[in-house]
Amino acid sequence: MAKAKDRKMSISQQEEIQSFGEKLCLERALYVIHKEGVDKSATFIDQQKRIYFKFCSGKTTSSCESDNLNLKDLENRFKNDVAAIEVQDKVIKRYAREYETLKSSAARQNLSASAELKRKSSKSVDKVKQDIIDAMKDPESVKFKNLSVSSDGSMVCGEVNAKNSMGGYDGFKKFVNIPDELGHDFTFYEGHDPIDIEGACYKQSRKR
After folding, report:
1. Which residues, 6 or more positions from 57, have their beta carbon under 8 angstroms from its beta carbon?
2. 100 alpha-carbon distance from chain centroid
3. pLDDT tens, 116-135?
4. DSSP 3-state assignment of 1?
5. pLDDT for residue 73 is more than 60
């Protein structure tokens, strides 16, 4: 049950990071569009100023007064747009910091979970090896190779060889150790037990 909960938390965390990343990308795209608009406005206002001073410098005609009011209105709107861009830039920087914090936190949690699984796996492998050694007729002759652990850390598999009662080695045989619902371990051996060892463990394993 705890493993299922951990998986749900991991998926939820991934979705949160992905959602935050998409939001950050959208804000950056909108910022670029708004920034381009502000830059174009600045160019347009500069052109209008040159035209105004060329034709209305020192003049007080109604047309020039109207142009002056329009120019001031453009400048006020431009200032508001610049202020909005500055706010948007701060929002993007805050989102970027929060996004990096989320990713760093997830990475630390994944690293911690991986280290814990590795610790448990090492302990599990050592126990399985000792159980197999204890069951052999000649414990000191036991040899292991290709040891691996299933991706969820529940199964241990590998190959074992040991001397028989005649003092000779029988050859390496594949095995898989599988716990039942009560936590009891059972080791099955190639050629002795009716179980698909390849399918049980070797297809989803981490080499030791």
Report:
1. none
2. 11
3. 555 555 557 888 888 899 98
4. coil
5. yes
161 beta partners: 143
Backbone angles phi, psi at 144, to 5 degrees: -120, 155
| The pair of three-digit structure tokens given for residue 112, joined into one six-digit string | 């911690």
What's phi and psi for 148, nearest 5 deg? Answer: -150, 165
User: Phi/psi zone of residue 26: left (φ > 0), alpha (ψ -120 to 50 degrees), beta?
Assistant: alpha
* 1 pLDDT tier (thresholds 50, 70, 90): very low
For residue 185, the cross-strand partners are 179
User: How far is 47 from 49, CA to CA, in rounded Å?
Assistant: 5
Grouping H, G, I as helix, E, B as strand and the rest as coil, residue 56 is helix
Torsion on CA atoms 67, 73, 76, 80, rounded to nearest 10? -140
For the chain, the farthest-separated pair of C-alpha atoms sits apart, in whole angstroms, at: 121
Q: How many CA atoms lie within 13 A of 196 on its CB side?
A: 4
Phi, psi for residue 158 in degrees, rounded to 5: 170, -160
Nearest Cα to Cα of residue 198 among 170, 152, 144, 159: 159
- SS3 label, residue 178: strand
Nearest to 123 by CA among 156, 83, 87: 156
Tokens of 33: 């569009």
Q: What is the pTM of this model?
A: 0.45
